[in-house]
Amino acid sequence: xxxxxxxxxxxxxxxxxxxxxxxxxxxxxxxxxxxxxxxxxxxxxxxxxxxxxxxxxxxxxxxxxxxxxxxxxxxxxxxxxxxxxxxxxxxxxxxxxxxxxxxxxxxxxxxxxxxxxxxxxxxxxxxxxxxxxxxxxxxxxxxxxxxxxxxxxxxxxxxxxxxxxxxxxxxxxxxxxxxxxxxxxxxxxxxxxxxxxxxxxxxxxxxxxxxxxxxxxxxxxxxxxxxxxxxxxxxxxxxxxxxxxxxxxxxxxxxxxxxxxxxxxxxxxxxxxxxxxxxxxxxxxxxxxxxxxxxxxxxxxxxxxxxxxxxxxxxxxxxxxxxxxxxxxxxxxxxxxxxxxxxxxxxxxxxxxxxx
Length: 356
Known about the structure:
The protein is of the alpha/beta class and about 350 residues long. It is built from 10 helices and 18 strands. The strands form 3 sheets. Strands 1, 12, 13, 14, 15, 16, 17 and 18 form an 8-stranded mixed beta sheet that branches. An 8-stranded parallel barrel has the order 2-3-4-5-6-7-8-9, surrounded by 7 helices.
């Protein structure tokens, strides 16, 4: 037995297919995002089987892993390229999302040296204050790309809800639509993609009367966890149990509900509050903050998390009958998924699907 996170690839494929089909009636296509699963080729292949038009990731090693697929997909770097990595960007990414003129110049030089043409999507600031070029600066950014012979401007994009929770709506999506029209008119070009955003755009895309020029969404969390990131609400019809995190019980005991002795800070700051005066049916699991984000960990019904240090998860078992050596399965939220997938102490197991 080992600490592990298991992935149901059939459910990844099904979630992708459902979202692809729902968005197809609006004219929006899906780019599957694999960053939460370290660019897993198995997950990427499942997204492609489900109808994703390509795959996106924020890390170059993850994009390189996706090249191992039998039919390498269109790969997009969805974080602004590091200036120090432009040669690698040209090598592993077909498309990159960009905001900086100095990076565009370096990408052009690297693409020229590799005798390649690199596709660029310019990111537009629409209010969430993460990446994005100010609206007034877009015309010059477009001219910058068009001046570089080894770059091709393929589209515009935006990102909302990640930094400050700004909701995608008719108003901000209309700005992106109008901007795309203006760019095409002014420069006599045709944009291949207008990428409205991420999983947070789903509610807008499926309920608006007019998506305008938006024809692509970059979906990760919605596919992988089956939830709407705006409110973490389950999306009807989607699987919310794609992932299961399993940990082993290393101690079971009856302990007082309240600690005793003088108290200061615990390992990660303030100690969690423990209430009540009853005896707690407590268990410790071999799982810690090095492995998972406790805020995104969902224990089985009837089990309550009491606290977590680097290597120990403390739970109240309630009425569950558990002995040392037993395993307990947990669901995961986005933060817990990301940390579990990046922890070297958590084994990754994939089930279902077909060979990539």
